[in-house]
Amino acid sequence: MPISTDVLRVGRKYYLTNHRERFEFMVIEALNDNDFLLKDLSSLEEYKLNELIQFGKGNDYDLEELQA
Questions:
Q1: Cα–Cα distance between 27 and 39 in angstroms, integer?
Q2: Per-residue model confidence as pLDDT tens digits over 35-44
Q3: What separation in angstroms does the CA of 2 have from each of 18, 45, 64?
Q4: pTM, whole model, 2 decimals?
């Protein structure tokens, strides 16, 4: 069961699966309107959470914290 975006914390690592794509990221900064600045753990690119879910949540949507 996916976690809510309300429980995301700065400095923690998470993964998001949506529309058959998987993203592993760290939360860099909490922005306004329930959005977050993220840093991709593979490419080190920075983007916003809303950019990942802008096309809606697919049947495979899953958001979980990465375990160390």
A1: 6
A2: 999 999 999 9
A3: 11, 24, 6
A4: 0.89
Q: For the chain, which domains are there?
A: 5-65 (2.30.30)
Rounded CA-CA distance 29/39 in Å is: 10
H or E element in which residue 47 lies: strand 46-48
DSSP states of 29-43 as a string? EE-STT-EEEEETTT
Rounded to the nearest 10 degrees, how much is the dihedral formed by the CA atoms of 3, 4, 10, 11?
10
CA atoms within 13 A on the CB side of 42: 5
Q: What order do you get walking across the sheet with 13-18 strand by strand?
A: 46-48, 36-40, 21-30, 13-18, 62-65
